[in-house]
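Sample entry as discussed:
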Amino acid sequence: MNPTLANTALMVIDMQNGFCSEDGSVNAIGLPAARLRTAVPGCERLIAAARKAKLPVIYTRYMYRPDYADGGIMANELIPDLKKTLKAGTWDVEVVDELAAQPDDFIVDKNRPSAFYATNLEPMLRGLAIENLVVCGVTTNCCVETTVRDASQRDYRTFVVADAVAEYEDDRHEVALKSMGMLFAHIVSTDDVERAWQTA
């Protein structure tokens, strides 16, 4: 199954400087931006196709308060070095230049892997009458998969674009795609999406 144009939005997950730039803070703590930059070309093509088709483009950005009071267990216990990263209001949290948002795009800021957790995403989707989500971005096994699972449980028909998502490790990337494809999403390619939207 491929996505239609009707009631569809493109979600671009966490394609921001902190994760995807060599000068980003997450790269500085040893999680290599080069691994995630492989998602940039596919995301770029999808954003262009969505804009051409006049579909909503929704960006998410991962960020913490400067005092990390909202960091939770992930930042305080599991990966304490996160408390050196992704501070709200900094260059780190901005979307990479190649994929920069336009004034009509939507931006959802979050401090957890799921874009649905404690954000305005769901009322925004309802307001836009969205039923189908095409998802790209990083990382496959963390923020992409967590968001996709939450979308599926809310009965959004979800499409994960396999060549427009990226992960730090190949095995986690492949397992995440396999898991999402079993119960939570249709796994498609950038070519599939472009063809479907052009045909529609």
Residues 1 and 186 are 7 Å apart (CA to CA). The radius of gyration is 16 Å. The first strand starts at residue 8 and ends at 13.
